[in-house]
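User: I'm designing a mutation panel for Putative hydrolase of the HAD superfamily and want to avoid disrupting the core. Could you give me a predicted structure to guide residue selection? Please restate the sequence first so the numbering is unambiguous.

Assistant: Good idea. Sequence first, for numbering, then the predicted structure tokens:
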Amino acid sequence: MKTYTHILFDLDHTLWDFEKNSEETLYSLFDQFGLGSFGKFDSTSFYNKYKFVNTRLWDLYNKGRISQKELRESRFVKTLTGLGLLEHEVPTGLSEAYIDLCPTKTAVFPYTYEVLEYLQPKYGLHIITNGFKEVQHVKMNSSRLHGYFREIVTSECCGFKKPDRRMFEHLLERINVLPADCLMIGDNYECDIEGARAAGIDQVYFNPEKVKGRKRPKPTYEISCLSELKQIL
């Protein structure tokens, strides 16, 4: 089995459970901002619509087609107008409240802490994320992840976004290692797996839902639970 010295992790949807934390936040904001008083949708419809809109906007952001500002300013407007509100009816401060509250949530995927405790004495652990710098640091502090990682590289700090190989190369330069010494673990096939492959880095595709994708090159490894990393490392 190949020997690695450094492990690169994506954060959202890989360690930090974005869906669970976002869902809890959105249900809280539904009540806080009295969205039910419009009588046009319930909290479940609000959550599902936001999830649909946000996923597509993040895809555009990762492809460089919209900015961070556009993503943040448009997702709640698109969500609520899509549910029947007029644009002027969208409550002021909703986006800011989401950005303040969601990163403080603490849900992580099963076995996150156990696996990090297992890996930390053996490898250099690092985060490489397209998430926004100030938000990612809050998430990691709130969920007690910060202490496990040596380097935390965000797309904002290096000027590139996954799957651009230059983002991976930026991290490799910072830790002064070769691609062959590293293993990338992430949930997003395009950003994490294809990006790492382009940089010459082996990959672990984290696929907890066991989704069957279109035909594409196989990752070096594929897992559905983080505990399976112990079989690889």
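For picking mutation sites, this is relevant: The mean pLDDT is 95. DSSP finds ten helices and six strands in the chain.
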